[in-house]
Every structure is written in structure tokens, then in C-alpha cells.
Amino acid sequence: MTNEELKLRLLQYAKAIFSPGDFHDQLAPAVMGYSDLLSTHFVIDKEKGQQHIKTPNGNAIGSIWAAQCGREVLRTQRFSRGLSDAISVALNKSKKPVHVLYAGTGPYATLALPAMLTFKPEEVQFTLLEINGESIGILDQVIEALDLHAYVKAIHQCDASVWELVSTDVDIVISETMYKALSAEPQVAIMLNLASQLPRETVFLPEEIKVSLCKWNQRDEAPQLLTELISFDKEYMYAIIKNSSNSNWVFDHQQIQVHLSEDEQLYLTTDIRVNEGNTLHLNDSSLNLPAKVNVPRKHGAISLNCQYSLQNPTGFRISGI
């Protein structure tokens, strides 16, 4: 397959991914075909690609694992389409070109590639951030083979959770550097770092990540909501920034009273709103799988202390009082 044929095939997949609706017949074949085509043409070193990079604020996953995330059908659809929708909204406000800052691109810039293939370079420009050298090498190959240089303002190999912006002229920030319940990976630190340097009118995608504490009797179809632990959106980010200094992000403690029967277990659930019409809920992707919470006392009345932390391990610390 020539580079031109490759680009045309990827464009066909992009159009299917952008089609409206939660699910349709072409969606799964398009997402899988998109992933397979990229992994066939741009091969990741099996040994280097499995290595995670530890940062002070969570792990940056290896190139192979980052690439495999693109195989999750609804996840790829909602994030890619959400970005495209956000670009269209900005263009409708007569903003040209729209400047997108994409933090944590992985080897293929999976979420941005469909937008590059469907918009014109005078409509959208990208600054790409990636910490992993193996991913950067593949990303360069992708941009070269698909002749996408006109869309790329810059590529920076950096830790986006501490990177200092070269310019604050950014319209949209997108990052999908997370794991379920906002654990293990640096999504929160990356977004806080970038938001602390950008004007309030900047659009951040996803617009909201909600993590809730639930109890679940496995005989029931779904967990029962107990309380919301975090609603990570723009308002929350700027509140954290205001109450913190020198990027030492401070998160509140929460005291929670729960009552568990012998058949119930505590879980954290994750809901993601990329933007309007692009949401991910329970079991829609690996990001939305319930995360079990282990506490010393298994049932009865339990008092809990909950706090989000960026220290190793990144995520919610929940302990009995």
C-alpha cells in the first residue's frame, strides 16, 4: 500500500468514526481497521514499547500499550469525535486556525489524526507533547508518511505535567492520559499544569471526569451511588490552582459514612464527558470499569477518609477512620 492509499483508507475510517450516534454498523470495523492499519505500517519495538516511564505524577504507559488503547471502540470514537466537534465550534466563532495542544500523543496521535485528515491546515494546527522517545520516533514516521507537516506547529518530547508552555495562544487542550478512577496515570497533573498557564477561555477535553464512591451487591445490575468524590472539570481545576502554590496541587479530604451489608463491596466508578454528545459511562471502556476499594472493615457502619493524591501511587487514598 502506498502512502497515498494509506492516507485515503485512514480518511475513510475517520469519516466513519465521526458519524453521529452512539453506535452504528461501520463504527467497530472503522476503529479496528484504523488501529490495525497504523500498527501494520508503523511497527513499535516490542521490547522498548512495553516500558512505562515513571513520572512524579503517575506512569506514562509504554508505546505498545498506548497504541492498544486505540482499539477501544467507544473510547476512540468519543474522544476523536469530541475533538473534531470542538474544532468545528471554534471555527464557527471565526477562529482560524484553531490551535490544539495534545498532551500524551502516544505513537500515532490517535485522537488527532482523524481531525488532521478531515480539516485543512489553515483551519487547525497542533502542538504535540509526548514523553516517550519510542512514541516520538513512530509519531515522526506517521507525520512524514501521511504528509501532515502542515498541521504540526511543534512536537515536544517532555513531561506535560511540568512542561512550561512556549505560547499561551491555545484554543483547545486534549489529553487522554488516564486510567480508571483517575489512578496510576498523570491526567490530573497534566491538566492542572496546562490550565495554570492558560487563559480561562481555553477549552479542555475531556470537559469533565467524575469519580464516584459506590457500593455494589454483585447480584444487582449496577453499583449504587454513595457520593461523588471528584468532578474534574474546568471550574474544579481553577479552584485547585487558586488554592495551591508552586504547582504543589492540594486536594481536599472528605469524611464519608457508609453502611455495607455482607454482600456489598465498595467500588469507584468513572464517568467521562468529553463534550456534548460524547460521553463514556460504566463499562463503556477500560476507563469506565469499576475499581474495587479495599477497607479494613468489610461490613456494617464504616467511617472513611478520602483524598486524591498525585504522590506514588497516583489516585484516591481511602482509609478507615
Task: List unreliable stretches of 5+ residues.
Answer: none
Tertiary shape: globular
Total domains:
1
Query: The CATH topology, please?
Result: Rossmann fold
Query: Proportion of β residues?
Result: 25-35%
Q: Would you tell me the structural class of the helices and strands?
A: alpha/beta
Average pLDDT value?
96
> How many strands, what sense, and barrel or not for the largest sheet?
5 strands, parallel
The appropriate CATH architecture is 3-Layer(aba) Sandwich
- First and last CA, distance: 62 Å
Radius of gyration: 20 Å
User: What is the number of strand segments?
Assistant: 15
Walk across the major sheet and give the strand order.
Answer: 5-4-3-6-7
What's the SSE pattern? HHEEHHEHEHEEHEEEHEEEEEE
CATH class: Alpha Beta
Name given to the CATH homologous superfamily: Vaccinia Virus protein VP39
Count of DSSP-assigned helices = 8
Residues in helix, %: 25-40%
